[in-house]
Design brief:
The protein is α/β, with parallel strands linked by helices. The chain has a 5-stranded parallel sheet, with helices on both faces. Helix 3 links the parallel strand 3 and strand 4. Helix 6 packs across helix 8. Bound molecules: calcium ion. The site of calcium ion has 5 residues, from loops.
């Protein structure tokens, strides 16, 4: 099952957000709508979107300020940002691009134009996303080659264990409940018992060998990947 590109819509006008969300959903994207910068920040710290549609005029932090902040943050700097602006002025467009937006679209826009621009920013960013790799301690995962190494020794992981490890490494030190892991790794539409997570965590630990202790069970809460395991 291919994962649908997750598009975060940051827009305070519900009517516009709803219209965009419906169109995205009908065209093979997974839209998530938030109405302001704080909500956007919370959503992004949970799950990194594939692209952000960012309204310029927002209550609280402006879209411009948010774009600048996300570009400066190593976690979000590679996520494409498409600014939505009601302004057609050249200086504003330039300010948006200077703040780190990949492109901008001026209201009112057609669905086709919006879709074309989203696809374009996703394509342009794709090589960087593919090349993304994570290292925690001496454990290293290279998303471009799907290779996992510990102390430079290659490890063999099944596809689900790989996805599980990738997620845990990208969100390390944080505790994830079984329900959250099911949701992020298996998707919302699959019915799987929470026990299944335990089975894959067990397999993952075995596949990791000495690094298996980095995957900790947090009693009553879930699992986390840590660079400083208690039992080591
Ligand atoms: Ca607005």
């Amino acid at each position: 099952m291919r994962k649908l590109p997750r598009i975060l819509i940051v827009e305070d006008e519900p009517a516009i957000a709803e219209l965009i969300a419906v169109n995205l959903r009908h065209n093979g994207f997974q839209p998530i709508w938030v109405a302001d910068g704080d909500m956007a920040q919370r959503e992004i710290s949970e799950v990194l979107p594939d692209a952000i549609l960012l309204d310029w005029m927002l209550p609280g932090h402006s879209g411009l300020l948010l774009a600048r902040r996300w570009r400066a943050d190593p976690r979000t700097k590679a996520v494409p940002i498409l600014m939505i602006t009601a302004r057609g002025d050249e200086p504003d467009k330039i300010a948006g691009l200077d703040a780190g937006a990949d492109d901008y679209i001026t209201k009112p826009f057609s669905t086709q134009e919006l879709l074309a621009r989203i696809r374009a920013v996703l394509r342009r960013r794709a090589p960087e996303q593919v090349a993304d790799s994570v290292a925690i301690g001496e454990l290293r995962l290279d998303a471009a080659t799907h290779r996992v190494t510990h102390r430079a020794q290659p490890l063999k992981l099944g596809p689900t264990e790989y996805k599980l490890l990738h997620f845990l490494m990208k969100h390390s030190e944080r505790v994830h409940s079984r329900g959250q892991l099911l949701d992020k790794i298996w998707g919302d539409h699959v019915y799987i018992e929470e026990r299944t997570v335990d089975v894959h965590v067990k397999r993952l630990r075995e596949a990791l060998g000495d690094a298996g202790v980095m995957v900790e069970t947090v009693r009553g809460a879930g699992y986390r990947l840590t660079s400083q395991p208690q039992s080591a």
